[in-house]
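> run fold Heme A synthase
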Amino acid sequence: MAGPSGSQGAYACPAILRRVSTLALITTYLLIVLGSTVRVTHSGMGCRSWPLCDGHLAPLDNFHSAIEQYHRYGAAIVSVLVYYTGFLAWRHCRHQRRVFIPAVISCGVILLQVGLGALTVLTHNAPVTVGMHLLGGVLELGIVTVVAITAHGKALYQSDRVFPSSGVAKSAVVRWSLLAVLATLGIIITGSIVVNSHAAQACPQWPFCSYGAAPARLVDFQYLHRATVLVGGLLLLVFFVRAWNGWRSLGVGPLIVVDIALFGIQVVAGALSAVLRAPADIQDLHLAIAALFWAGIIALVSMAWDRTSNLERADGDREFRVLEK
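> ok
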């Protein structure tokens, strides 16, 4: 049923868009994890040309060239899924801006990300381009998460019994969501600085560092990241308390619990990485959990924002019908 002004906002997106957007989300996450493996195993220059690996389609002669080239194939698969999602959003959900706009943005970001990947190879894994490439991947993961969550959103014109009356203002959701997103992004960026500056092994203690054999600059990068985790963690704690007390009526309680658990696991993985002198598998796990936590935060705020938007629309529809009577 359309809304009071003939809007199509009450229609849910088709199943194919929901499935493809979910697949795009999953493969984007897996691509970030594979990219982390490329980085921590120092396989970034396993292929010295782009897009082929030294003229080969499927190099299997050594681990480094193989994992680097298969990372590129993964990027191609993700690109197809992202663009297919954008096409489906344009075809079926142009009227749902909360779905269509991020789907279009994700198409632009993935194109930029492919370019950054090529630039990273051509600049021989310069730290700046590696960091930009990781940041682009994180942003793309956030955007495709928004698309997947909002594509699954159902209009609530006739669903008051599902989310009765939350009493949650969308403006409050936006404010607290911005706090959580910026805190998480700050933690990821400073963690990337630690890895890209080769400071991961500079401080084999936790939570404090001792200035010793490692250059002081590298220890400073460790302190920068740990201070950001401390401050960001406190901000996230405030966010989680606020979300738990105010958003549970939106049906996001389980997601809040999952995000809290992921953050705790992430802190433990970071401590282990430091104490064990950053072995490749622990570094990989650390980034994998960080990416999953980032997706979880984006999913939480997207779901809360989407549901408060629908509830406000439903309230407006009810008021319109009352005035009509």
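The chain has two domains: 1-155, 161-325.
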